[in-house]
Amino acid sequence: MTKEKIDPSNRTRDQQENILDLILYNDDVNTFDFVIETLIDVCKHNSEQAEQCAMIAHMKGRCPVKNGATDILTPLKSEMTNRGLIVTIE
Hints:
Blueprint: H1 13-17, E1 20-25, H2 32-43, H3 47-60, E2 62-68, H4 70-82, E3 86-89
Antiparallel strand pairs: 1-2, 1-3
Helix pairs in contact: 2-3
């Protein structure tokens, strides 16, 4: 059985409305290395993806780092907040 990728445009309106973003905000406290390590550990990013997200958050002030349903994002938000990062679910 092969897994087929789901095209977001094929989702129903209810499914699309339940997809939220976990947003990482820039701060003047945490180092790039710490943010990158956290993204790798908590969000399961690869190193390149984590570096890009950290840079985008630094340059633009915020960066969506993960998307999904609330029940998926809430534990990630809690862990990142516990580690001192500023994140929201939007």
